[in-house]
Amino acid sequence: xxxxxxxxxxxxxxxxxxxxxxxxxxxxxxxxxxxxxxxxxxxxxxxxxxxxxxxxxxxxxxxxxxxxxxxxxxxxxxxxxxxxxxxxxxxxxxxxxxxxxxxxxxxxxxxxxxxxxxxxxxxxxxxxxxxxxxxxxxxxxxxxxxxxxxxxxx
Length: 154
Known about the structure:
Blueprint: E1 3-4, E2 10-12, E3 21-25, E4 47-48, H1 51-60, E5 66-70, H2 76-89, E6 94-98, H3 106-111, E7 114-117, E8 135-138, E9 141-142
Parallel strand pairs: 3-5, 5-6, 6-7
Antiparallel strand pairs: 1-4, 2-3, 7-8, 8-9
C-alpha cells in the first residue's frame, strides 16, 4: 500500500521541465539522506493513495499534465499499479517519480516518463548545480543539464 499526505499535495512548476505538475508526497520513504528536508516522510503516516484518490486529485487540478510521486514508499507493486491506473484513466498525463536511491528497478524506468535518482548530498547541491550527484531522466535520457543555469555570456 502506498500512503501520502493529502495536505502537502500541490501543483508545482519547477520540478519537471515544461510541465504543470501535481506533486504528491509519498510516505514510508526508504531513504536516510543527511540533511533531508522532510524526515517525517520516513514514517508510516498519511492516507492510502488509491486510484480513486488520484482520479479526484487530477480532476480537481485542471491543466495538470504531469503527476509526480515525491518518493516511492515501500510497496513497489502498489506504486506500479497506481502508475498503470493513471496511464489507463488519464492518458494525457505524464508520470514522474523522485527516488532518493542511486539506482531504481528497470520496471520503474520503463513505467515512468521522468525519474529522478540520487540522494540529496548537501555539498554537491541540488539538480540546479552542475556538481550535483542527482540525475533526472526523461524516458531513459539524462536531462539533468536542463536545470543548470548558463554562465553569464553564454
